Amino acid sequence: MAMKPIIYPEIGIEITEIHASKKKKGYVYFISTDGEYFGLYPYDAVLQHQITKQTIFTEEVINSFRKTVESMVIRSIALQFATYKPRTEKQVRDALNKKGFEHDSIQEAIAFLYSFGYLNDEEYAINFVKASLEKKPMSKKVLQYTLQTKGIPSTIISSVIEQYYPKENITELALKVVEKRFRKKSEYTKELIEKELQYLLRKGFSYSVVKDIRVTLLAKIS
Fold first, then answer.
1. Contacts of 72 (CB under 8 A, 6+ apart)
2. Whose CA, among 18, 132, 172, 192, lies 20 to 30 Å from 219?
3. d(CA 207, CA 54)
4. Is residue 142 one of the residues assigned to a domain?
5. Rounded to the nearest 10 degrees, what angle do helices 121-135 and 154-164 cross at?
6. CA 141 vs CA 7, 59, 153, 200, 201: distances in Å
7. 25 located within any domain
8. Is the confidence at residue 193, as pLDDT, over 90?
9. Do 147 and 91 meet the contact criterion of CB atoms below 8 Å apart?
10. Which 3-state string (H, E, C) describes the chain?
11. How much is the pLDDT for 27?
């Protein structure tokens, strides 16, 4: 959903009142001599540009003020989005694009998040792989694809998977997936086992791994 455009005073407009917003903390709006409302603007931007009552907006003031306001607004939105839960650069970029911000403003906001450590695609990938292996195991192929859809660069994906994805005991990992799914079902049956084996194949586990699991599961009903 695109963000509503911020309304700025036109050249020659004189401000007679500045009021704090009751709905949005830290933001203010202006009232001109003819009673027209403008805003909302971050109060820090107003202070930075020394805008007070009787300020008359020139083209230079408007352009400079607009640049500062939009920088502060996009940084605030980006920071809130990136700190609500872990995000990748692509996820932040996509969210800001949807709100209608321009490319240069988005680049600035992304750089701001990186500078304070709020974005780190490698750290995101490491945590994602670790959490997946612990809570929701998936095949290497599916894990790679999932990280790609989140915008993680291929070099980071390869490095992280090489370091953290198990090179052995893949059968145990796949078995963990099936056993977790079986907890929601009443009992093992041959028909249900075959269905779960097909699920593993769709999730990218190899035929050899699935074959080994088939033997293990069928032994439970023999």
1. 42, 44, 45
2. 132
3. 77
4. yes
5. 40
6. 49, 56, 15, 12, 11
7. yes
8. no
9. no
10. CCCCCCECCCCCCEEEEEEECCCCCCEEEEEECCCCEEEEEEHHHHHHCCCCCCCECCHHHHHHHHHHHHHHHHHHHHHHHHHHCCCCHHHHHHHHHHCCCCHHHHHHHHHHHHHCCCCCHHHHHHHHHHHHHHHCCCCHHHHHHHHHHCCCCHHHHHHHHHHHCCCCCHHHHHHHHHHHHHCCCCCCCHHHHHHHHHHHHHCCCCHHHHHHHHHHHHCCCC
11. 94
153-182 per-position pLDDT tens digit: 999 999 999 999 988 888 888 888 888 877
Name the amino acid, one letter, at 102. E
Residue from 57, 69, 49, 5 nearest 33 by CA:
57
Range of the domain at 136: 121-164
| Residue 122 in tokens | 């490698």
Q: What is the CATH number of the domain that holds 143?
A: 1.10.10
Examine the domain organization and report whether 58 and 94 are in the same domain: yes
CB contact at 8 A, 30 and 17: yes
Instruction: Give the chain's largest Cα–Cα span.
Output: 89
For the CA atoms of 89, 90, 95, 98, what is the dihedral angle to 10 degrees? 140
Mark 108-124 as b/e (b = at least 16 C-beta within 10 Å): bbbebbeeeebbebeeb
Whether 6 maps to a domain, the answer reads no
* Arithmetic mean of pLDDT, 3-8: 82
Q: Each residue of 51-75: pLDDT tens digit?
A: 999 899 999 999 999 999 999 999 9
